[in-house]
Fold this protein.
Amino acid sequence: MLCKENNIDLILAVGGGSVIDSAKAIAIGAFYEGDVWDFFTGKASIENCLPLGVVLTIPAAGSESSGGSVITNEEGLYKRAVGHEMMRPKFAILNPVLTYTLPTYQTACGITDMMAHILERYFTNEKNVDLTDRLCESTLKAIINNAHTVIEDPTNYDARAEIMWAGTLAHNDLLGTGRIGDWGSHDIEHEISGIYDIAHGAGLAIIFPAWMKYVYKHDVNRFAQFANRVWDVEIDLNNLEKTALAGIKKTEQFFSSIGMPITLEEVNINDEHFEEMAQKGTERGPLGNFIKLDQEDVYKIYQLAK
């Protein structure tokens, strides 16, 4: 209503992913007479959008350079996404100094979130994507190499700048060029943070390794490549499965080392809502692209994450 009544012609989002995504929802809702939630359920199509600018304060979601938005509807505790090129911000100001005062936990959640954005794109069924494989791997390694520095020395400008830039590259679609990403882990996690209000990055630290354990046999070679190029695990040509599992273990150990939970038990979540979350997550169809996951698959991944 404010946008319509005051002829607002630009929205400036100052904050992190939640602020930016909310601003995007407002920007598309400014031209719609119905409930903005309709866009997130597929009942309405985006036809116009107010231009957005961003001053980023939390490197994490990558929303400052993406065309997507994720919001939660407290009626039913649904967390859903919508995307359109018109929603991509016109500009974003990234000043690492603005991140100096972030709590350590939020810094770690942001690191996990941006890594997950890369991993969603990395695990693809597309062939002949060596260039973007290498871009994904090098961006992951840059994040890993600077993560402990920003946690232990929050005012280290150089490390903060590396993390901030990596978070933008992780989700501006460059790394997904020529690839079909998975996005199953994000959808599975959205059901957790929709009900329990857990930080998205923390939820991803729990779900992504569980997803990896569930699907790695679909393409053991890719998981072994990930282990070798990102975590420096020596490839065992006689046992690629061992190499793949070592890479998954390294991923878990890294998340834990920066203060992230890696099991649902650590955040006091039991199996009470597993069936509900699996049902809600798949009510519009199977999740993911690397492997299509139905309701039973999603339930089993929650079980692996316990």
Observations:
- The chain has two domains: 2-94, 97-304.
- The domain at 97-304 is CATH 1.20.1090.10 (Dehydroquinate synthase-like, alpha domain).
- DSSP finds twelve helices and five strands in the chain.
